[in-house]
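Hey team,

Filing this mostly as a record. A colleague (T.K.) asked me to run one chain through the structure pipeline before their review meeting, and I want the input and output archived in the tracker in case anyone asks later how it was produced. No errors, nothing strange. Just documentation.

Input sequence:
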Amino acid sequence: MPWNLTTTHAQVGDLVQLVGLRHKSFIFPLAEGGTFQTHRGILQHNDLIGLPWGSQVFSHTGAPFFLLQPALADILINLKRSTQILYPKEIGFILVTMGIGEGQRVMEAGTGSGAMTIALSYAVGNTGRVFSYDQRAEFQNLARKNVTRLGLENRIEFKERDIAQGFDETDIDAFFLDVPGPAGFIPQVRAALKPGGFFCALVPTVNQVQTLLTALRRHHFAFLEVCELLLRYYKPEPTRFRPTDRMVAHTGYLVFARRIEPSADPRAVELLTEQKMGDLADETPPWLVEDNETNSEPEA
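Output structure:
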């Protein structure tokens, strides 16, 4: 795998990161006899091969760099893209909140440039599987290239399809949805998720959040949460410690939920009501209404 964080020295085929003045960085694979050219000079790959990570190296003009292994965040920010990508601040929170880990089967709809695809495939490991759906071939072609560059292609199945037609897989552990009009696809998402499975959607506008919340409750999702993440960096200077001049602020709303299997038992009403599982918050859940109508005796 080209991107390997477990080694101590740079080797042929490794994905490396050179970080220079003002944190300007470059990510590329090491090749025997290769040359890396930058506006700050030229570096020969052979001079980097075999060096310990963290070594300081210099271009032919004397410009200094540190030789590092790129973090996942570095790779995602520097992806070739044709669409807006998720930022690491959202991706990390999504992975932890949905409990993504080794061996899981996870799905995303809206492949885009492959940033979330890469993060999911990294998290599920060699024994897991990521299923990525998108109806635009150009997006999936770019995502394939980005994934292959990291050596993660064996963990992913790309599928080109309008997701209104549904998904091939069932009993998925977690589902990430990043498409226009997400509320219209909740029945298809529910059919793909396992009972109790995790759901997350990235939603750009308030009105779409409201519509999505209604759709989730009507299709038996509970434990709904909505949040946005704002990230502020600080200057790491003891004598001038203060916020930096810029911050990564609002990039979208995250909506989380879990697929539940509601019971018709009258004892379930209090919990279902607490989760606002009716068409409206003050209504009896529709499946309890249907159950009562089915079990009622016909009028004489």
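Quick notes for T.K.: DSSP finds nine helices and 13 strands in the chain. Residues 278-300 have pLDDT under 50 and may be disordered.
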